[in-house]
Amino acid sequence: MSRISLPVARGRAACQSRGVKPTLLTFDIFGTVVDWRSGLGDPDFDRIVDVQGELEQQRFRSYTEIVAESLVRVRRADVVTAARIASEVGNWPLFPDSRDALRRLRLVVPCAATTNSDRAHGEQVQAQLGFRLEGWICAEDVRAYKPDRRIWEAASRKMGRPFDRSWWHVSAYADYDLRTARELGLTAVFVQRPHARPGPADVTVRDLTALAELVETADS
Fold it and tell me: What beta strand segments (E) does the chain contain?
């Protein structure tokens, strides 16, 4: 995929005019908040992610099952080892900025996860953060995986929010995640993680610290 040059928010300086002040933030988790590349390791990472994406579009299975099968297929892991790794993906390391940035953001606006994962992974991630998000809307509950809009529809119901520009969706994956968010009329925020997949977005930030700075100083 070719890279697209996008405006980058750096503190107070940029991009506030591209969206109204947020009243809800939803976050992709794996790859945006959790450094899943560090968790999986570099070898075959992109292939593993692509296999997971393929499996997510087939009959519904838990994310634990999908991760396990991707490891068996790509790395030829034995099924016991693959299942153990898959059950613990919420313990993969957070990006260094995630905890403090999310803590700051929650002081300003409700923050929720919309994530291709299981409920157990949500407990693991939130234990790492040291606090709970205002919502954890995951594939296991919805029985569908992003980019399926049912994830966002479930988030709308849970958070009591209609689709509009004051709902900012935050992800390092514009190719499938932010695309649906934009189609629904949300403000799409692209995070430039090392293995991000770029595409059209309304706001671009280098990391979640920059997002916190932007939201804290956003005009009403």
Answer: 8-9, 24-27, 111-115, 135-138, 167-171, 187-191, 203-205
Q: What is the pLDDT of residues 181-204, one digit of tens each?
A: 999 999 999 999 988 999 999 999
CA distances from 74 to 45, 47, 61, 112 (A): 9, 7, 18, 32
What sign has the CA pseudo-torsion 205, 206, 212, 214?
negative
| Domains of the chain and any CATH numbers | 8-35+92-216 (3.40.50.1000), 36-90 (no CATH)
SS3 category, 218:
coil
What angle do helix axes 45-56 and 63-75 make, rounded to 10 degrees?
Answer: 130
Which pTM value belongs to this model? 0.90
Q: How far apart are CA 27 and CA 136, in angstroms?
A: 10
